[in-house]
Amino acid sequence: MESVEQREEKVKLAIEIAIKVGLIAMVIYLSYLIAKPFMAIVVWGVIIAVALSPLIDSLEKRFGNRKKIIIAITVAVIAALLIPTYSLSGKMIESSQTIVHAMKDGNITIPPPTEAVKEWPLIGKKSYAFWDAASKNLKATLAPFSDEIKKMAGSIFSALGSGLGTIFMFVGSMIIAAVFLIGAEGSVQFYKNISRRLMGDKGDEWANLSALTVRSVVNGVLGVAVIQATLALIGMGLMGVPLAMVWAIGIMFLTIIQIPALLIIGPVIAYVFSQGSGTAEVIFAVYMLIVGASDGVLKPILMGRGVDVPMLVILIGAIGGMILMGMIGLFVGAVIFALAYTLFKFWIAEVEEESEAKEA
Question: Which of 98, 173, 211, 239 could tie 44 with a disulfide, CB 3.0–4.6 Å?
Answer without folding.
Answer: 173
